[in-house]
Write a structure and sequence with these properties.
- Helix content is 44%, strand content 14%.
- With 345 residues, the protein is of the alpha/beta class.
- The chain has two domains: 157 residues, Bordetella uptake gene, domain 1 (D-Maltodextrin-Binding Protein, domain 2, 3-Layer(aba) Sandwich), CATH 3.40.190; 132 residues, Periplasmic binding protein-like II (D-Maltodextrin-Binding Protein, domain 2, 3-Layer(aba) Sandwich), CATH 3.40.190.10.
- A five-stranded mixed sheet has the order 2-1-3-10-4, with helices on both faces. A five-stranded mixed sheet has the order 7-6-8-5-9.
- Helix 6 links the parallel strand 6 and strand 7.
- It starts with a helix and ends with a helix.
């Protein structure tokens, strides 16, 4: 009996020691993270030019991130719009300090670029640390004016609407192109406009009949004014399902019935699930990564952040970037090859 009692006491003492050690270690980790960030400047690299949606989201979110991060560091912004966001993606993977002092905001198409590019892209979305994505995004097609050629998808399916776009790899070109090849639309795509503003001017002048754009962009600025005046007519959305904000507008997926075609369209639409993705370089200390991830979630759930986002016509919808990156990069090679073939102008 004495041996049993002694053993029990030893076990109880060991459990207490382990519990104390774990609690102390956790406290040390917290202290270590706070000491690192206190008085530090953290750089937020934004993979887009100033003034656009990605820039607005990042600058709106950053004060809430630092509010919830131990040590409350100052965050400065560095806009790096090169290569459609891939400049930041490459920097995060290869060059940025691996100490938790740099955060990158990517463009959603950066996650699919390594699969579809003809040349090797120096970025693998499965080999960086994901904090998460703040929202889902959808693209929509719209016409403009009091009496446009089409106001509904049914009307648009019957006539060759001229569609303005920017780069041949931009969503405002690739999505209408895939709609032609997989859903039966007859869009006459005119790409090569230098910027969004140039395409909107072309729409306004009647040089083109329609344009693809992110849905949230149609809620503000010039397009928001057109909407208020009854001049902007959204007739199709590019999403895996209908967005709750425009439940009466059909999704392109509803007009894609073939199995392979649906798989290709799904692959192309998946990056939109990562509307506003944030990453850090690989190899940063685990305690700082854990703190950044917790701060990211806490900031994203902050009611004041939600209120700030609502002011520019958007909403917060947290998405697991790591999971989405893994799904995209695990696409079978034969499906990737078919997609690349379809995307040729």
């Amino acid at each position: 009996m004495k041996n049993v009692t002694t053993t029990a006491l030893r076990i109880a003492s060991l459990v207490a020691s382990v519990t104390l050690f774990a609690a102390t270690t956790g406290a040390f980790a917290q202290d270590s993270v706070e000491q690192f960030y206190k008085g530090r400047v953290v750089t937020m690299q934004i993979g887009a030019a100033g003034g656009g949606s990605a820039d607005i989201w990042a600058r709106t979110f950053a004060p809430f991130l630092t509010r919830h991060l131990p040590g409350n560091p100052q965050i400065i912004y560095q806009n790096k719009p090169g290569a459609g966001g891939l400049t930041v993606a490459h920097d995060m993977m290869e060059n940025a300090p691996r100490d938790g002092s740099v955060i990158g905001t990517l463009q959603r198409n950066n996650f699919i670029a390594p699969l579809l590019a003809e040349k090797t892209i120096p970025f693998d979305p499965t080999k960086v640390n994901h904090l998460g994505s703040l929202s889902r995004e959808i693209q929509v097609m719209f016409t403009y004016g009091k009496n446009p050629k089409a106001k509904t998808l049914e009307e648009a399916m019957k006539i060759p609407l001229k569609v303005g776009g920017t780069a041949v790899t931009a969503e405002n070109v690739t999505y209408p192109l895939l709609a032609n090849k997989l859903a039966g639309t007859k869009f006459d795509i005119v790409h090569g406009y230098a910027s969004t503003d140039d395409t909107l001017l072309a729409v306004e002048r009647g040089e083109v009949d329609a344009r693809a754009s992110s849905y949230d962009s149609t809620l503000r600025g010039q397009m928001g004014d057109w909407r208020k005046d009854g001049l902007l007519h959204v007739f199709m959305q590019f999403g895996l399902e209908r967005d709750p904000g425009i439940p009466d507008v059909p999704s392109v997926m509803e007009h894609v019935t073939d199995g392979d075609a649906r798989s290709i369209m799904r692959l192309m639409l998946l990056p939109q699930e990562l509307g506003r993705p944030y990453i850090t370089p690989p190899g940063i200390p685990e305690d700082r990564l854990a703190a950044l991830r917790k701060a990211f979630i806490d900031a994203a759930n902050d009611p004041e952040f939600h209120a700030a986002v609502e002011k520019f016509g958007a909403s917060v919808d947290l998405v697991d970037g790591e999971k989405m990156a893994a799904e995209i990069m695990s696409t079978p090679p034969e499906l990737v090859a078919k997609t690349k073939e379809l995307l040729k102008p």
